Inverse folding.
């Protein structure tokens, strides 16, 4: 099922494998507001009003739960009862009231559930929960889930989503088939799912569905994020984000006075382990995150070397700490620039003046900066915001520096794909002109910064900067050097670490990213492996000797959920792993922990499969998100409806609502649902493609797509020049009038949707208006990813 | 050995990597285009555009669909263009692909009139007829190097395949059988028999007319040439060209077995 993704257009290579699956009898479902090139290849297409994914998936969950009760033989009940928290008893104080999961307190940019409310989302027994393995107890997760999603009947769902009921039920029936023990279904999603004020809960919805269907950890299952750009996985692994350190360790915040406090606060302390309740066949939760101390100490040893000692908490205090409650994400940064909090800005391989939400707001905010540095392979809209059309450059005081960077073919390094495969990439050609590789820029830059700190004895944070192990020369730094440091060393032997299982918390090991420990061992750089032969005994397509996959080259994580309690694969034809009783070992993929199967292991070692969760089981009910334990329907910040048809709470109460130039549109002025996306022919804001004539030839102009009924009502013909407007801006575009969009009936009303690619901007060889002039400055409750995908707009013919 | 390209419409996502690969390999310039209310561009084949994808929106049995069709030379076994070319500049390669020899082409445009698929176009800069050569052009011959045509190599989904024609016919027919068994009764392998057998074949999930492809294409006859020639004579152009030479060449070629290498 491809939902919130247009894989054929935006990840064309991924379609090679989807096509192969179809050749072998696989069925493809496409759920999208618009009939896309992906939909054209689907067996079932279901249209959906943009921003109503939770209703759609909630309806599917409701369908599956009813079917589980009526036809349990069609589902993997052992998986549901033994490998998920379906049977866990929840806190009796939990209340769900008219769209809210407790009490909200209002903060500067968002609402937040009170700590007391959040406490009610947990298990009744805290870290020692009880369970009803029959799933009958009204307070158990399964029953609470059923109660919550019983409201999501097909009629209500389709009234919200606008999906024809027949299409919705076709999707439910086809996808529920994957609940059988020997069947698998996968969900591919992308920014169509994430870029909403409840984007994380959209994904949680997929996770609940996949868990109920026993599709996690199995061959052909899982939830597959098709990333926005080719190395997003790698950049996330390496923590190119504000909330994490490399390897998904939490970013420290003020108040984390030592490593122990940090671990307890972030839930990565051994005391966070939740013991398996009586009634489950297993008796142990590995709670892998309890090893975090080893990983953070090894990371600090990488960064601070000999200066990191047990006495100074290995330099933990030198790490910058976030202020609690302050948002450091993209939208919040623009707000901070607009509020004169941030005066200088590095933009490295990004183009917020065209790619960020509410581009007018961002462009105006940049004028408040004292300086800006743009590092890119092209001169992009952000770098020349000061001379954009309609602006007098003499009125802008910001000093802008441009550093030309080498492109991916002009430098060596690694790239990690959505399947967590890290592959080595070689340099093909020398960079153009003065451009140099990012690593060289970074090395040079940091050397100069260190010199400044060296000279200024009163500089704040001086110790942390000067104690860094930074022995890089910009002329000699190599990606190979970095890859070794990411893997890490045993400081007692000087040899590269073989696995993160051997990392220590006493300062005798280093690892720049514990998840990449094992990627570069004394045997060499495994990212360079290129053996296409599938070494799996049943050749299920793992290709484990092609590149390297974190963790420890395990190709399918949570693969212990692919076998029954005795270690026999549920899907005999496609076994990920299986227990070889004679040899007392696992065969197949690298198992997610080498412990014997639950029924075979001795007491105290019967280990649950979902090792990254404190309770060792998959969460059908979670308590890690800001906006509630279950996905619940809310309307987008700008909705064509007056009310949320599911409850009295119209919007996600925890969504981030920007204040800078962020007027909210209303349906009386802006009656249509706008959504943005990319086309195959251009890349992101188009800065890499709009200067390439062959690609411009294919897709020359900014366009907007709409259904023929709306076009007729507005007197717009196919190919006309039109203006699309929102409360925040206007965009000129060529109209594509197409039946690929069709009007949807939502709560008895006709809703028209308008689609715009965000591939244009005023820079480059072929320019055009940026769709992001229209999008709002609001973001998801958990990640603050902008709500690019749904907003209100209007259209008219251009004069 | 008779070779062919098989295009499977059911696997094509219209990513158009083939369109770009064609331009890149043959070093063709980009055309200046504008959005005309469609994803499709350039609008038509030309001397600089030898391959383009068509985007077809249609409703079949009340179900909307969006289909993508390759538009390029079909490389007919009975090639009208070769038949009507007055100077014998159009010949077939060993693989069975139809090639316009730019050294001999006089830019008369007869082939552009004769082609049942309207494929060859007069290039406005060179003034010569041009079209896809299945990557056998002089200096750009991939097949001679043991490579596949650029479009096939770049296709991510496997919608394009290159190989022995016999094998691809069998493969195409198998896909068609499967389609027929799965609710597409009019699925068809276009090019298996048309015009003596095409060297570019299409797996279609419907009858050719749905896509605007001629159902019973006919080979053009030399009549077209004589008409064209008489027109030229009338216009007095004939005297300007060394036609004794080109007619001689045509005769020479006819006396041979028609064998001519691609490079």
């Amino acid at each position: 099922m491809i939902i919130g993704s247009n894989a054929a257009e935006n990840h064309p290579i991924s379609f090679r494998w989807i096509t192969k699956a179809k050749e072998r009898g696989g069925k493809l479902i496409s759920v999208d507001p618009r009939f896309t090139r992906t939909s054209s290849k689907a067996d079932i297409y279901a249209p959906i009003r943009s921003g109503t994914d939770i209703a759609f998936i909630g309806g599917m969950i409701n369908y599956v739960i009813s079917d589980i009760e009526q036809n349990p033989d069609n589902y993997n009940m052992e998986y549901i009862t033994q490998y998920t928290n379906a049977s866990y008893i929840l806190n009796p104080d939990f209340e769900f009231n008219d769209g809210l999961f407790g009490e909200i307190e209002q903060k500067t940019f968002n609402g937040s559930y009170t700590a007391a409310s959040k406490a009610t989302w947990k298990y009744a027994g805290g870290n020692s929960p009880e369970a009803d393995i029959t799933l009958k107890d009204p307070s158990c997760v399964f029953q609470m889930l059923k109660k919550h999603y019983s409201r999501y009947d097909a009629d209500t769902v389709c009234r919200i989503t606008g999906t024809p009921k027949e299409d919705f039920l076709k999707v439910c029936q086809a996808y529920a088939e994957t609940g059988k023990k020997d069947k698998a279904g996968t969900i591919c999603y992308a920014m169509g799912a994430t870029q909403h004020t409840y984007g994380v809960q959209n994904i949680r919805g997929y996770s609940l569905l996949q868990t109920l269907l026993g599709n996690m950890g199995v061959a052909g299952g899982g939830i597959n994020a098709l990333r926005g750009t080719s190395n997003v996985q790698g950049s996330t692994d390496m923590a190119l984000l504000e909330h994490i350190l490399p390897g998904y360790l939490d970013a420290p915040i003020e108040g984390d006075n030592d490593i122990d406090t940090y671990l307890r606060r972030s839930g990565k302390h051994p005391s966070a382990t939740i013991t398996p309740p009586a009634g489950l066949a297993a008796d142990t939760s590995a709670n892998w995150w309890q090893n975090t101390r080893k990983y953070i100490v090894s990371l600090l040893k990488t960064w601070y070397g000999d200066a990191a000692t047990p006495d100074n908490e290995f330099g933990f205090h030198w790490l910058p700490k976030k202020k609690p409650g302050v948002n450091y994400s993209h939208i919040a940064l623009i707000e901070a620039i607009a509020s004169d909090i941030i005066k200088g800005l590095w933009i490295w391989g990004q183009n917020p003046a065209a790619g960020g939400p509410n581009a007018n707001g961002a462009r105006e905010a940049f004028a408040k900066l004292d300086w800006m540095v743009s590092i890119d392979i092209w001169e992009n809209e952000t770098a020349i915001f000061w001379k954009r059309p309609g602006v007098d450059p003499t009125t802008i005081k910001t000093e802008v520096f441009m550093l030309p960077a080498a492109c991916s073919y002009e430098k060596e390094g690694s790239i990690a794909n959505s399947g967590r495969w890290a592959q080595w990439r070689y340099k093909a050609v020398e960079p153009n002109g003065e451009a140099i590789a990012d690593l060289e820029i970074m090395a040079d830059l940091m050397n100069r910064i260190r010199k400044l700190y060296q000279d200024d004895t009163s500089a704040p944070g001086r110790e942390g900067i000067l104690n860094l192990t930074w022995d890089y020369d910009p002329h000699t730094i190599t990606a190979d050097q970095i890859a070794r440091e990411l893997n890490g060393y045993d400081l007692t032997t000087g040899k590269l670490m073989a696995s993160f299982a051997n990392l220590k918390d006493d300062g005798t090991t280093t690892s720049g990213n514990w998840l990449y420990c094992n990627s570069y061992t004394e045997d060499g750089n495994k990212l360079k492996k290129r053996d296409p032969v599938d070494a799996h005994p049943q050749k299920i397509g793992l290709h484990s000797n092609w590149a390297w996959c974190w963790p420890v080259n395990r190709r399918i994580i949570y693969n212990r959920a692919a076998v029954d309690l005795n270690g026999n694969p549920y899907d005999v034809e496609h076994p990920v792993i299986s227990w070889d009783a004679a040899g007392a070992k696992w065969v197949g993929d690298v198992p997610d922990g080498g412990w014997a199967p639950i029924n075979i292991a001795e007491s105290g070692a019967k280990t649950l499969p979902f090792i990254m969760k404190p309770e060792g089981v998959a969460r059908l009910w979670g308590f890690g998100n800001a906006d509630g334990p279950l996905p619940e329907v809310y309307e987008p910040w700008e909705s064509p409806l007056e009310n949320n048809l599911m409850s009295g709470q119209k919007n996600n109460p925890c969504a981030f609502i920007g204040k800078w130039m962020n007027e909210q549109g209303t349906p009386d002025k802006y009656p249509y649902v706008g959504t943005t996306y990319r086309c195959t022919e251009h890349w992101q804001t188009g800065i890499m493609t709009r200067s390439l004539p062959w690609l411009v030839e294919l897709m020359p102009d900014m366009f907007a797509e709409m259904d023929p009924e709306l076009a007729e009502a507005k007197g717009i013909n196919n190919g006309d020049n039109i203006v699309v407007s929102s409360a925040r801006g206007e965009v000129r575009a060529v109209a594509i009038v197409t039946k690929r969009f069709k009007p949807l009936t939502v709560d008895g009303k006709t809703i028209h949707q308008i689609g715009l690619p965000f591939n244009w901007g005023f820079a480059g060889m072929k320019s055009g208006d940026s769709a992001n002039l229209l999008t709002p400055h609001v973001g998801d409750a958990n990640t603050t990813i902008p709500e690019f995908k749904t907003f209100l707009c209007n259209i008219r013919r251009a004069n | 050995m008779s070779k062919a390209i098989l295009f499977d419409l059911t696997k094509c996502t219209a990513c158009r990597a083939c369109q770009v690969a064609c331009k890149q390999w043959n070093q063709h310039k980009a055309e200046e285009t504008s959005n005309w209310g469609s994803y499709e561009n350039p609008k038509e084949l030309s001397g600089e555009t030898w391959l383009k994808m068509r985007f077809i929106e249609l409703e079949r049995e009340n179900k909307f669909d969006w289909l993508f069709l390759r538009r390029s030379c079909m490389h007919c076994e009975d090639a009208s263009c070769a038949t009507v070319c007055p100077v014998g500049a159009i010949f077939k390669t060993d693989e069975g692909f139809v090639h316009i020899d730019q050294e001999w082409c006089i830019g008369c445009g007869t082939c552009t009139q004769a082609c049942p698929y309207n494929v060859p176009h007069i290039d406005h800069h060179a003034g010569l007829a041009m079209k896809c050569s299945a990557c056998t052009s002089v200096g750009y011959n991939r097949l001679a190097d043991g490579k596949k045509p650029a479009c096939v190599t770049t296709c991510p989904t496997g919608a394009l395949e290159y190989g022995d024609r016999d094998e691809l016919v069998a493969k195409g027919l198998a896909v068609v059988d499967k389609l027929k068994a799965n609710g597409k009764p009019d699925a068809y392998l276009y090019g298996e028999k048309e015009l003596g057998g095409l060297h570019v074949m299409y797996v279609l999930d419907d009858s050719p007319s749905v896509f605007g492809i001629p159902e019973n294409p006919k080979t053009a006859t030399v009549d077209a040439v004589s008409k064209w020639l008489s027109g030229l004579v009338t216009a007095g152009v004939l005297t300007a060209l060394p036609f004794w030479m080109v007619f001689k060449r045509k005769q020479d070629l006819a006396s041979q077995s028609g064998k001519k290498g691609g490079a």
In short: Chain B has one domain: 1-28+40-257.
